[in-house]
Amino acid sequence: MRAIDAGILVCAECHELNKQDADTDEQVCTRCGALVHARRPNSLVRTWALLITAAILYIPANMLPIMTINSLGKGAPSTIMSGVVDLVHYGMFPIAAVVFIASILVPTFKLVGIGLLLFSIQRRQPLSARQRIWMYRFIEFIGRWSMLDIFVIAILVAVVNFGRLASIEANLGAIAFASVVILTMLAAVSFDPRLIWDNTESDDDHD
Description:
This protein is mainly alpha-helical. It is built from seven helices and five strands. Helix 1 (43-63) runs antiparallel to helix 3, helix 2 (80-89) runs antiparallel to helix 3 and helix 3 crosses helix 6 (172-190). The chain is elongated.
């Protein structure tokens, strides 16, 4: 049985359990005074909006140069993929693998994963609640590694600054990539996982 079936609302701020008051349109938490809802208002709409925006920015994030390495007054901008290719060319396979996974695979999986999760809930696709919640938890888990490239660029820009001898500059691709990461993180946060159980028709999934 779900908490909502028993007339119990969970406060999103302090996690206090509140007895649902059917006579009140805007119920507040008895502990902290925050508004409590059976489900986050407009959760699917906000998540779709954030996800679509992230998907649009994902194109310039991969097409535009993410950074420029200047050496002796000469520099060549590089995209995420060209940077991976350069690392492979120089024999740095472990670093190339880390960059490829963190900058290509993880954002792609998050975009596709959240999209499939939303679509399966709205269209009631044949996915069990356990499959959906596993996907949601995995998306949350890998989200923390999406900023790896941005952290590396920020450190390199701050550390490697020797004037015309050698320097590294962040480009527009880094801004677009950081925006994609932030938007996908916000999409995962705005999604209410309780909707997964609301859209489950099998009683076995509630065990």
